[in-house]
Amino acid sequence: MENKEKMINGFLKRYEIRDMKDWKKVNADLIITDPPFGIEFSGKNGNYHRNSDNVVDGYVEWKVNEYSEKIKQLLQCIRDNLKSSGQALIFSGWNNSNLIHNEIMKFEGLTLRGKMYWTYNFAPACKLRPAHNVYELFWVTKDGGWHYNNRCSTHHCIEGEPNLTTLKFIRDYKMNMPKYPTRLPFKLIQCLLEHFSNENDLIFDPLGGSGMIGVVASRFNRDFLIGDLNKNGKVVFGHLLDYYFNKNGLMQDEKIIEFWKKKNGY
Hints:
By secondary structure, the chain is of the alpha/beta class. The chain is about 35% helix and about 20% strand.
């Protein structure tokens, strides 16, 4: 237990409270990041299946009129902190995906290799039918030498032929613990890490939020570095590390996922 606590404390030190513009020469193999939505989102909306009292404060939303400039800054951060052979995956909701696409196409130093789509159960309540949503993922590379592993150990590859056009992963909503307004599910990140990186690679997220990228990276023998402006994100990160390392979180996730499968007909 003492060794595990020491390990978790070491992981916490890899989460820094820092603006994305302040990172230099991280030399990451892979960047996975989920920018703010740009829709005046707080995560405490009353139509979500969550107790808003559990949602931490401090989420830094991007204003609509500054969104393109913020994406340009993010792309500069990605370019400046990737290895020459590095690659990045940028998540986007549908609202501003066109702005992200346009900025990538204009940006010098990064190449858009393709797009993927993540379909998932949606948090807002829906009484008449199951609610679902779609995220877009922009796959960009810096120079040459990037790589891709054909298979992963999630259901995405185990159940049938792998398809990286559409990724279907249910959100693993957590109960009775501090929540960040946005958080990607464990299995989705696992799938991406296994396809787009190797063991001992350095994974970087300059908009780390809950720190979930670091949680999954640590479980799959990747090094990681995370940054965010919200100090409460690091608090949530600490709770997630405890959940997955001390409380058998993966088994609890499976129960949550089965619940959502039955509820929404997945």
